[in-house]
Amino acid sequence: MNTKQEKEYTVEEKLTALYTLQSMLSEIDRIKTLRGELPLEVQDLEDDIAGLQTRIENLDNEVTELQTAIAQKKIEIENARTLISKYTAQQENVRNNREFDFLTKEIEFQNLEIELCEKRIREFTQSTNNKKEDKERANSLLIERQADLMNKKSELDEIIAETRQDEESLREKTQVLETQIESRLITAFKRIRKNARNGLAVVYIQRDACGGCFNKIPPQRQLDVKLRKKIIVCEYCGRIMIDPELAGVE
Questions:
Q1: d(CA 245, CA 10)
Q2: What CATH number does residue 127 fall under?
Q3: Exposed, middle or buried by CB within 10 Å (0-12, 13-18, 19+), for 215?
Q4: How far, in Å, CA of 219 to CA of 243, rounded?
């Protein structure tokens, strides 16, 4: 049934429908242009914010791990001091020099353990402070990015609100119009539009040249376009060509 309806359309009607469709899609492109780079800027800011939030979370986890390590080193210091006290008391009751020397070495070893733990605590504390400073900078940057995102989103929402109705109306019309054009032609139209500069798949002849690539069109080919008996494409850029009158241009 659809095939029968498609055959009822003349070439001129098909060309008119394609040019109308092109005009509507160009208007949608213009609306998108009004939004400029805002959608991309919003996406970039959202990505930055997500990255900063992850960084802050990681810094918090690292600080917690360092604080746990510091606490563990303090416990080790207390254990070493307990042993030193124990060994010192034992030295008073040794039976020979060998036992005294052994206890002396153990005390020296525990003192070295305390020094090493204190060194690690200083390193962990410095690292903790550095990470806290990194977190403060990340938090400040996060606040800036969130403010920027709010402003960009507000600006984008305002533009979208102003153009949404027009865009939705145009999209509805293009969907209806596409059903009136044979699928083979629509497929070709979309392919040309995707590859063409400014998304123009249908152009009219201007000053004896293609309105897309501006290469000269031979007189006989111009006559074929004007007769509207068949769909003519530019041999240079592949765009569908129509005569100015069909485009409403004098």
A1: 17
A2: 1.10.287.1490
A3: exposed
A4: 12
